[in-house]
Design a protein that fits this description.
The protein is about 85% helix and about 0% strand. The chain is mainly alpha-helical. The radius of gyration is 15 Å and the shape is elongated.
Amino acid sequence: MSSPVKDKDFDLVSTLYHALQGAELSQRYRQDAESNGDQACQEFFGKIAGQYEEIAGNAKSLIKERL
C-alpha cells in the first residue's frame, strides 16, 4: 500500500499516528486479557504495546529533528 501523499514528512506523521493507535489498542487488549486472567496474552499484548511505543518514539524524534 502506498502513501496517498508522496512526502516523507507525511509518512513520518502517519507512522507516528498508526503506532500510537497500535499502542493504545494493544494496551486495551492487555487489559482485556488481565480481566480474564490470561497471563500469557497479557504479557504478549504488553510486549506488542511496548514495541509500538518504541516505534512512535522513534518517529517522534525524527519529526522533531525536521521541525
